[in-house]
Amino acid sequence: MPRQAHAVLIADVVGSRARKNLRRSLAQTLAKASQKHLSEKLVLLPYSITAGDEFQTVAAQPAAVPRLLLELRSMFQPLSLRVGIGIGRVSGRIRPPVNQLSGPAFEAARAAIERVKRGHAFKFDALTVFVSSKGEFDEAISLLDGLNDTLVQDVTPKQWNTIRAALKYRSLDRSARHLGLDISTVSRNLKRGYYWQQSETVKAAESLLNRAFH
Hints:
Elements: E1 6-13, H1 22-39, E2 48-51, E3 54-58, H2 65-76, E4 81-88, H3 104-118, E5 128-131, H4 135-152, H5 157-169, H6 172-179, H7 183-192, H8 195-213
Parallel strand pairs: 4-5
Antiparallel strand pairs: 1-3, 1-4, 2-3
Helix pairs in contact: 1-2, 2-8, 4-8, 5-6, 5-7, 6-7
């Protein structure tokens, strides 16, 4: 029986050289993300800074990646993330530290993040690339997320703040109470921040990953 396919995420911060005290704020945000995503069983390891502004983790399953992407982009605002996802085997036992792990999934993730950095994935700016042994799948899901990335890059801080509330409270009413806004304002911010498009992208990508690697 073939070994389970794992999804490895490697991410870094766009324009990190212009950011002061980045490593400290990066560590603080990653600590919060680790606590949340470990408790929700979305990742197998805490996020770990592996070099400069780069960090890595292993998702609990490939289909967890789309939700992780949306939540990480929300949590890191106003920072923008480039993310490479590699899907394949992980050699040996999965345990920290993540930078001591290896295998085809890590090699694929490294290839993916390098494609994002070089900007060669598409003829438009994309922040997300998938690499696995399934080339046609990689093209389809990378295009799906790449098109979503063009929307993500236009979302304002106010809209991201509303998106964070929507992700946490899962209802317009509770989000509005948390933000001290009326429901119509919350609804408008979500619409202008492409929240519904981003949410549908998550669902579609989850479906693709489940069919390809379940």
